[in-house]
Hints:
CATH architecture of the largest domain: Orthogonal Bundle
CATH topology of the largest domain: Arc Repressor Mutant, subunit A
Number of domains: 2
Distance between the termini: 27 Å
Largest sheet: 3 strands, antiparallel
Helix content: 55-70%
Amino acid sequence: MVRVDPNSSVPPFEQVRTAYAERINDGTLPVGAKLPTVRKLAEDLGIAPNTVAKAYRELEEAGLIETRGRAGTFVSAVGDESRERARQAAADYAALTRKLGLGRDEAKAIVDAALG
């Protein structure tokens, strides 16, 4: 179950987006799993439907979920592809940093800075 901490400095839509992204990426929510409707999740969490809709939009833009009209919203198989693309990007980055003569610590520091 996704939870929203009303006392957190993190906006509610971001809490929802992050919670679902983590559950999808770690396999807790498998490909094809159906997500609650925007209204149902908003009601369960005690937040505005637009807040949930924003989180769902961002998850869909990231390719982690897909909306199938009246059938509902589901975990997308594209999420697996996204993870593979990230792995490939990491491998490409590692090759580039080696080519440039950067050490492991410096390469990691660059990634940490980029991730913010």
